Amino acid sequence: MTDTRRRVKVYTLNEDRQWDDRGTGHVSSAYVERLKGTSLLVRAESDGSLLLESKINPNTAYQKQQDTLIVWSEAENYDLALSFQEKAGCDEIWEKICQVQGKDPSVDITQEVVDESEEERFDDMSSPGLELPPCELNRLEDLAELVASSLPSPLRREKLALAVENEGYIRKLLELFRVCEDLENHEGLHHLYEIIKGIFLLNRTALFEVMFSEECIMDVIGCLEFDPALPQPRRHREFLTKTARFKEVIPISDPELRQKIHQTYRVQYIQDMVLPTPSVFEENMLSTLHSFIFFNKVEIVGMLQDDEKFLTDLFAQLTDEATEDDKRHELVNFLKEFCAFSQTLQPQNRDAFFKTLSNMGILPALEVILGMDDVQVRGAATDIFSYLVEYNPSMVREFVMQESQQNDDDILLINLIIEHMICDTDPELGGAVQLMGLLRTLVDPENMLATANKTEKTEFLSFFYKHCMHVLSAPLLANTTEEKPSKGQSSTSNDFQTSQLLALILELLTFCVEHHTYHIKNYIINKDILRRVLVLTASQHAFLALCALRFMRRIIGLKDEFYNRYIMRNFLFEPVVKAFLSNGSRYNLMNSAIIEMFEYVRVEDVKSLTAHIVENYWKALEDVDYVQTFKGLKLRYEQQRERQDNPKLDSMRSILRNHRFRRDARTLEDEEEMWFNTDEDDLEDGEAVVPPSDKMKSEEDLMDPISKFMERKKCMSVFHLGRSGPQLFSESTRRSATYIGVRSFLAPPPIMMSPFVGVPMDLGALLVQASLRRQRVFRGRTDPLALSDDSLYERNRFCIYLRHLFNGQDIINQWRKYRRCNRCSCPGCPPPPPPPSTT
């Protein structure tokens, strides 16, 4: 049988940092003469071929992971792993590795990870620098090998960077590049490609400043065109000098700023297009290049921000009606790029940037731009507006409230945004989705400020519902004028784009229902918005009908009686029931969403809606039996009617919840069985619980009303409550009742408590309870907390009903007399009764 303990999978780490499976086999450790040491051998289980032969090097760091995995590095950028089928096999090989290295097998890593610079600290102590070969054509190959060999070692990289920087080696290399290019020396150009690429990986800012200077950067790009892996060189310099054009939409007078913009563009081009995609090991070596670009952008934004003349001219031309469309398009694109650069700024610098733009009048300028007909210009303006809203929505809200005091509603900035959302020509409504997100941010109370003097939420929402909400809801009202969606040119039953737009509007209105309790409530009720929305449940587009249902579901979820009365007054469940019935027996989202809405009304016991649904739509829904939702609603309704007929029962649920108690079920069963098995005939003469002088009187006074009652109430009528109450007991438990002696009533066991509530019962309840127990009507007492609220409610209602029947004055007098006699110590009164027999 094959030893599964040594069964392993061999993995190697590829260039994409993914583990490649090299095969499955069995591992062993043995001395290999060729390798001069103990080695790990893995032979394939299929054909016995050698999958792995690795010498256990005393200085190699082996790591044990997850009890069944051993990982180590064979050479630079070559990682291996053995994954064991069983933990025992992994432990055996791990002990062998630790034995060879002289380590304790309890450790998870055999070697401490030592920085390579520490290992080489004492190397070449007498010569701290690195000597570079002469910068000549015949030594380019040696230099390329030196650069490649220095990259793996941090110490050698540092020495190489210092040598290249101190000797001005980059400019010498670029001179050789020009010579090789003139001579068409392709071998030398390939070596220069490897050398310049290696210098990039040295990750040193001082070298980048030289390479990206005005006189060197184009030659550096030229060196990177001659990749030896490509059959033909690239034409990057040709693209940068002939194809790419720098446009000054506003003349830049500062030459340093202009040079910085050119440099940043070219370095970004080198990073994105010229340099090959770095491997996982090389990615961190280009961190300084990323930082170089980042800080260049920060400098550009700062210099433009400080140039007041430049920004003044920019906004003046943007808002000037005489500006040509092409020019305005370039200005808007520049401003968009300018705002995009600002995302790289630190928070405090970004604050200063947007404050500067605000002071320059960016929001009035956007208002003018958004009113233009050019779609591309409006799209760029929308992107700029999104930067402003994401940065500081309060600034935008303050602006639109101030301009409402001077301008008409039609030209308000926020209404322009809503109109562009409504009039989006994109079939997929990409721009409308973006604008809807911006509007949602603006009306979100979570990002509104509250100060001691004013509340932004109150002021802005009042403004929004007064000046803007009618614009937002206009498409909804226009397409729901009839009982079915309008069938015009923009018919929701046929026009998919209009349906998408209405779905976006409903999504925003649903958000308002959740967050704007007061304002949206008044708007919905006054404008009859919900009735219009429910017209869309008849749409052939399922997503639109579901949006309408979601809107109503959010309203019902608030459990607001104002909304509930509005729904009942206008019979707004009617379109929902129609949609449910027209959907038929199909099991889809529409079916589930409608049932969930009714189920919520039932579970949350929304009394007004429950009564409205049952009284108006029960006939249409009574045949739905694949869920119990509608029958549960009918039961809720009947319970409500019974409570209305008997108002005293309204307090029962609070009694149940406040006085429930829990006792050991086994103790209760034992005590009840003892009570059942104790018969009045088993009591001896000395166990009388009522004074002899009172016995006959008590029996006569008490039995007469009881007998009359039991004759009047048959068993079936006793156990069926009201017109529709649930049946409490099975047919087998309905036995004819025989009357018992008074002493059985008046001396119940000390354990006898009501099985329904946690308080003692008066005599009337004890009478009936004892009689029922004697006839074994109550079998196997159950824990009240295990029953549903409805069952407990019905049982208590029955108990109270009987208590009222037996609460006669004769019974009360007899009970009081009995209590007095047992508490007093007069000679004429008999002693208190002893406890009942424990048979």
From TrEMBL:
GO terms for cellular component: nucleoplasm; protein phosphatase 4 complex. Gene3D superfamilies: Pleckstrin-homology domain (PH domain)/Phosphotyrosine-binding domain (PTB). It comes from the Eukaryota. One of its GO terms (molecular function) is protein phosphatase activator activity. InterPro entries: ARM-type_fold (IPR016024), EVH1_PP4R3 (IPR055236), P4R3-like_central_dom (IPR006887), PH-like_dom_sf (IPR011993), PP4R3-like (IPR051137). PANTHER family: ATP SYNTHASE GAMMA-RELATED (PTHR23318), SERINE_THREONINE-PROTEIN PHOSPHATASE 4 REGULATORY SUBUNIT 3A (PTHR23318:SF3). This is SMEK homolog 1. It comes from Gadus morhua (Atlantic cod).
